[in-house]
Design brief:
This protein is mainly alpha-helical. 50% of the residues lie in helices and 0% in strands. The mean pLDDT is 90.
Length: 68
């Protein structure tokens, strides 16, 4: 199962439509056990180091929301 969240340019704030998708996703996986993989991505703009840091912050934003 794949879930895609869309962030505004250079932002890490979850959008309302993505929160709904995350809630639906969480409801489906809650009875399961195991691990999930959260990967953050960016576009080509910005330096590699800036994009790597932004990707990590985006992943953490989703992880934090799911943990809450």
């Amino acid at each position: 199962m794949f879930l895609i969240s869309h962030f505004d340019f250079a932002k890490t704030v979850l959008k309302l439509e993505d929160i709904k998708e995350l809630d639906d996703f969480f409801a489906k996986i809650q009875p399961l056990s195991g691990d999930i993989l959260i990967a953050g991505h960016t576009d080509y703009q910005g330096s590699d180091s800036d994009n790597e840091a932004l990707s990590l912050r985006r992943s953490h934003a989703i992880e934090s929301y799911l943990k809450a």
